[in-house]
Amino acid sequence: MAPESDYAKVTQQTVQPDVWLPVLYTVQERKAENRGIVTLKLAPSEAEMIESIEPGQFNMLYAFGIGEIPISISSLWNSQQQLIHTIQDVGTVSKAFCNLVVGDQVGVRGAFGTSWPLEEAKNKDIVILAGGVGIVPLRPLIERILHDRNDYGKLNVLYGARSSENIIFHQDIISWQADPTLNFQITVDHAYSNWRGNVGVVTRLIGNANFDPRNTAAFICGPEIMMNYAVHACLDVDIPEDRVYLSMERNMKCATGFCGHCQFGPYFVCKDGAVFAYPQVKSYLNIAEL
Amino acid sequence: MTPEMLEFIAGCGKNMHFKPGEFLGKKGDPADYLYVIREGNIAAQLLHPTRGSLTIRSLHGGEIAGFSWIIPPYRLQFDLCAVEHTSVIALDGNCLRKKCEEDYKLGYFLMKHSATEMIQRLVDTRIQLLDVYGARV
Predict the structure, then answer these.
(1) pTM (two decimals)
(2) What is B3-125's CATH number, 1.10.490.10, 1.10.10.10, 2.60.120.10, 2.60.120.460?
(3) Which of A230, A238, A277, B125 could covalently link to A213 via disulfide, CB atoms 3.0 to 4.6 Å apart?
(4) Is there a contact between A191 and B51 if contact means CB atoms under 8 Å apart?
């Protein structure tokens, strides 16, 4: 019998067999956020369900016969059994998910990846910078902080969208705007004169945030260009770089760090991220080949 | 800005108030004033022939509107429209330019601060042009 390869040994030691097998879930609710973005509430079709998921983590969602994509959890305001995922139609598989209707079934593997470091952020002021659909993995973080509100200092949520038509989570936004314990600011990049809100880049909103920079944690998610500028906006107001966290996006396929599609310098985004502290990734953010 | 500089240019200023929908100035108008926004919200807009008025940027309390007073040919490059009740200190452009010629330290100070803000707005505009949030919906 041939000796086992190192790869096989690693595989046997670190991978739980069940993470490779999709668990059957059924679409329980479907909500169109706007023309290209849909939120699905999924419930287990049978007794089996995936392990519990934390803010910032993602699941691999499988559209039968079409393909599998990584999607962040987008809300935790539900029973432990249900999963809420918000999906933007950007390709064949995501389009299939956006076209699902109540009663359709999907496969789910998870939960994967790192979560937002809520323990490290306790007793600190919080700045959350969201760009576009980057608000999706940040919404459960906001929910968790609001749930445990006394554990955190001042809470600032700064949200930038392409235009007023691209804003999602309207009900949450109304609730956040009305919440006196939360400083919520919104801006759009492009607007007609009927938009009475702010127009300009999201990084500028940091000037309207209320926090003590030396005791603040910043959480950022959005397009990588936006995150680059957002990180520097945080550093410019003296938030320590080791308290700036960002959620990276790469082409994640296996979700367990084996296929290599999502390699980012020494990291696999699916396994070592998607949430990173800025010092972990700052050397790699400006390398075009990565 | 030093108290001496402030006193020197104070005579150029006056308080003005604009109602929602009222224009502080329109593109192509003489750039008669530098507006220091005290409170309110001003939209810098461009009129598109088919899409109507497009807001390029909103400006709030503590910000400056109207840099064209310092750059020839001293004409507004955008429409400036009050989105809500807005109070400003309007500094007369002609008066300011004369003061700057009389006191180069003041001129350098105002040019340096204007350039800093203009560069920041140029960077912001370039980011907006990148359209980083992806496809229209």
Answers:
(1) 0.88
(2) 2.60.120.10
(3) A238
(4) no
